[in-house]
Please model this.
Amino acid sequence: MNIRITIGAAALALGLGAPGAWGAKPAAVPAKPDAHAAALAASQKCMDCHAEAEPEDKSAAGKPVKVDVQAFAKTMHGNGKAACVDCHDAEGFRKYPHKEVKPPQCASCHEKAVKAYAETIHGQARAHGNGVAATCANCHGTHDIKPTSDDDSMVSRGRIEATCGACHGDTKLAKDGKVPGGNVVAKYHDSIHGRLLHGDTKAKDRVPVCTDCHGTHDMRPKKDPESAVNRANIPETCGTCHGKVKKIWAGGQHGKMRAANVLTAPGCTDCHGTHTIADPKTPEWQVGVIKECGGCHTEYIKTYRDTYHGQVTDLGYTRVATCASCHGSHEILPKDNPFSKVSSQRILSTCQQCHPKANANFVKFQPHANKHRKESGLVLYYTALFMQVLLAGVFAFFGLHTVLWLYRSLAERKAQRGRAAGEGEKH
Amino acid sequence: MASTVQTAGAGAAQKYYRRFDRVDRVMHSLLMITFIGCALTGLPPLFSHQEWAVKMARLLGGFSGAALIHRVCAAVMITVFLLHVVRVFARAFATTGLKPMLWGPHSMVPQPQDAYDIWNHFKWFLGKGPRPQFDRWTYWEKFDYWAVFWGMFIIGGSGLMLWFPTAFSVVLPGWIFNVATVIHGEEALLAVGFIFTIHFFNGHLRPEKFPMDLVIFTGRIPEHELKEERPNEYRRLVEQGRLAATETTAPTPWTKVYGRVVGGAAVIAGTLTVVMIVYSVVH
Model:
C-alpha cells in the first residue's frame, strides 16, 4: 500500500508539471506484497557485492557497478521503495553470476512516461537509430533519482541547464551526434533568461529553464504541430509569462497576420531569437534586430541604409532612429491605420520623440526615399542623377588628363636622360 | 655662363621667389587638416556596411566622437573659407582695386588663355606640340580653387541642413534632407576622390614634383622652377621690373620639415582613404 502511493508520487514528480497524463496509476508494482518484500530482502544480497568500492562483478559492459548505499537510500527509489530487481528485471540479474543482463526497464513502473517519451524528439531520434539521444537515465539519473522539487535532482530548476547541457552544451557531442541547434545551452546561459536564472534577483525563480519552453515528456520536435516550440505555438509559449506583450503583439499587424494563419509573419523568436534571447535594451540587440526586420522588408532596409539613421545604426550606434523607434515593436501597424506610429495623425509626435522641435514641414522627410525612383520626388531623382553625371564627368576628364600627363612626363624624362647620356659620350 | 653652372652646382645661393604669403599657407594647412578630418569621420557612415567602416568609426571615438570631430572640422573649414573670401575682397578694395581680382594673370577667374592652355596641354601630352607656357595660375589650379568654392557651398550647405534639420525645416520641406543627404555624400566622394588623386598628382606626385612640392608650406618657389613651370610669370616680373621685389629668403628649415611631415601624413591618409573607397566600391 505504502509502496503504491510512493511510486505514484514518484511518477508524479517525474511527470514534471504535467502529472495528469501518467501519474494517476502506478504501473507494474508487483501484485503480491509478499513477493515484493522478498525482492527487497534480495536487494540486500545485491548490495553485498555492489556496495563495495571495487566489486569483482562487472556490468554488461564490463564495468564494475558500485552503488552508494547511503545515497541511494535518500533517492525516490531508495529506502525500500523499489527493489534492485524492480528496475534490473532481466532474468539474468536474479542469478549469480549474472547472465544475459539487460538495461533497466523504467517502463515496468512508469509505463505512461515511457510511452510519452517515445513521442518526444529524443524518443523519435532513438527510434531512428540516433545513439546519443537522451533516455530516462540521461535526464533523471540512475541510482540518484530525486524529485524535481529537490535541488539535488538532475531535473530541478537549478540543475536542468546542466542536465540538458550534458548533450546540448557539448559542442563536440552536438556536432558528432547531429544534435539540432548545436551548443544551445551556452547560448541560453548568456541569454537574458540564463543570466537572470543565475542572477540574484527575484526573477531567478520565475525565468524559464529549458523544460519550461520545450516541455518534458511532451518535448516534441518543433515541426510537430503539438510542440510548444512549433512556430505556430511560440507566441502561446512565450505568452505564458509575457502575457501582456503577447496581447499587444496580437493586436499589431504581425499578430493579426498570424491570426489569419500567415505563418511567415514574425512571432516572438523571429526578432528576439530563441536560445540567444538578449536584453532588448542593449545597443547590440537594437542594432541587430534591424537586420531581422530587413530580412522580410528588404526594400525598406535598403532605403533606410541610405539615410543617416540607417548608416549610424549600421555602424553599431543607437542614438538615431531604428525601425522600432518610428514603427513601434509589438504594436506595429500599417501606415493607413490611424493608431500606427507612422500614420499621418501620429507621425509628428513620433518624430518629436527625438526631434522635439520638429514641425509639419519636418515630417515631409522621407525615411525610405529611393533616389533612383521618380516616385520618391523629382528633385531627389534629378539631383542624384546630376551628381552621378558630375562625378563621372570630373573623374573621366581628370583621369584621362592625369594618365596622359604621367605618360608624357615619363617620356620627357627618358628623352632627357637619353640626351644627357648622348652629350656625355661626345665629350 | 660657365660660372653660373658652377655656382649652381656648388649649391650656392639658390634664389627664391614669394608665391604664397603666411596667411595663405596657414589657411591651406587648416583647410587640409579639416578636410582630412571631415573625410575620415564622414566615410564610415557613407560606407557603413563595410567592416573597415565599423572599425574606423570606433577608432574615431564612436558615434559622438566622430560626429564631434566632423562638425568641429566643418566649422573651422567654413570659417577659413569665409576669411579667405573676406581677405580677397578686402585686398581688392584696399590696394589693387577690383580689376586684378576679376581679370588678368593674378585673377582666379577662368579666361580664354586657360582654354588654350588645356588644348595645348593635351596636344603636348600626345606629343603633338610644345609644352604650354603657364603663368601664375594654371587652369588646373583654378579648377582646384573653384572646386573648393563649389564644394564649400554644396557640401557645407547640405551639411548644415543635416546638422540643424529642425531649424531648416522652419522654411524648407522635410524632403530637402533626402536631397541634402544625397548631395552631401556624393559631393564628398567627388571631393575626396579628386583631392586625394588628381590634386595630389597635379600638385605633388607627378614626376616633376615627386614626392612633394613644398611651395604651399614654405611659400617660396625656387628660381629654376619659376622659370620652367611658370615662364610667363617670370617674364612678366622681369618686364615689370618686379622680380627683385618678389625675391625672398630661402625657406626656413622648420617649414620644410613641417611640409614634409604634415604633407606626407596627408598624402598617406589620403591614399589610404582612396584605397578604402575603391575597395568598397568594387567589393
Observations:
- Chain B touches chain A through 49 residues (CB under 8 Å).
- The longest strand of chain B covers residues 16-18.
